[in-house]
Amino acid sequence: MSLVARISPMTGMVVVIALILGAIGATYLTGNLLASGNTIEACDSGQRLRIVDDSSECKKSETSLSWNQQGIQGEPGADGAAGPQGDQGEKGDQGDQGDQGDQGDQGDQGEQGDQGDQGDKGDKGDKGDKGDQGDQGPAGASGAVGPKSIDIDLGSISLVYNSTGGPPTQVRLGGYLTPALEFPADVRRDINLQLPIPADWDGQSRFTLNIMWATPGTAGETTWDCSNSSFRAGQSPLYPTTLLYSCGRHHLTSAATADALQVHSMNLGVFPSDAVAFRASIGRRGSSPNDTNTDVAHIYAVSLTYN
């Protein structure tokens, strides 16, 4: 949008500007021209002056002009006369309570009063604290030495087997950190373990092999075989001193609760006093007609006890 004013060549620029401002009025400048910035833009052709929004609207034959929309601020006026005195204000709120004063000096001591009557007998006092513990008595006689026990790591057991079946598998069940050994129900599976004779063996007591086992079934019997042999220093485990003892065949009844742990002990007999190691074999006879448990069986732990 532009506002045009025709100009006589003899007319001065000041007169032109004054005429333009008078023609367009304050409302137009405030509503339209002042909205574009702090200056007024115009295009001068020599014959007429156009008020424009931006100097880019000027033609090549026109000269762009601009001037401030507002003049320099004048000096402040003189101070006005003092106004009349105002009405008296309302009464203020009561002030806070003052701090407490210092304590006065202590008065003189009064005269001693007469002695009072004797009071009633007081109640029985509370029970006193427990006394200190007495000195320790003499040590008693030593008890009988109990059986010693060695826990056997299932991960170190040799999973060998006979020609009738493969080895038992290692499985992890019930959150146990060590693997359990799994024995199927329809074939024979054996494990062999070889251990040195404990140095603290008394040379004459029996050894007992203990198994902790369970089965998910609750019916039938599980048949286990056990045999063992010992060997002297320098002998190969393949050629032991003698087939010392047959641990026997054990028909173990399943627990009434599925996967309930049971402990069964197998007597290994007495080893020769010069034996240095022994080998034991434990196996499930799943193919035996006496093994009527149709579920797998698991051995969770194996230990050796002796005196």
Secondary structure blueprint with pairings:
Elements: E1 3-6, H1 13-33, E2 39-44, E3 48-52, E4 63-68, E5 148-152, E6 169-171, E7 180-183, E8 188-196, E9 207-214, E10 221-232, E11 242-253, E12 262-269, E13 275-285, E14 297-306
Antiparallel strand pairs: 1-3, 2-3, 2-4, 5-14, 6-7, 7-14, 8-13, 9-12, 9-14, 10-11, 10-13
Protein described:
- This protein has 307 residues and is mainly β.
- A hairpin with an 8-residue loop joins strand 6 (169-171) and strand 7 (180-183).
- Strands 5, 6, 7, 9, 12 and 14 form a six-stranded antiparallel beta sheet that branches. It has a four-stranded antiparallel beta sheet with strand order 1-3-2-4, covered by helices on one side. The chain has a four-stranded antiparallel beta sheet with strand order 8-13-10-11, with no helix packed on it.
- The longest helix is centred in the first third of the chain and has 21 residues, at 13-33.
- It is flat, with a radius of gyration of 58 Å.
- The model is unreliable at 5-35 (pLDDT under 50).
- The chain has one helix at residues 13-33, and strands spanning 3-6, 39-44, 48-52, 63-68, 148-152, 169-171, 180-183, 188-196, 207-214, 221-232, 242-253, 262-269, 275-285, 297-306.
- It has two domains: 3-68, no CATH class; 148-306, Jelly Rolls, CATH 2.60.120.260.
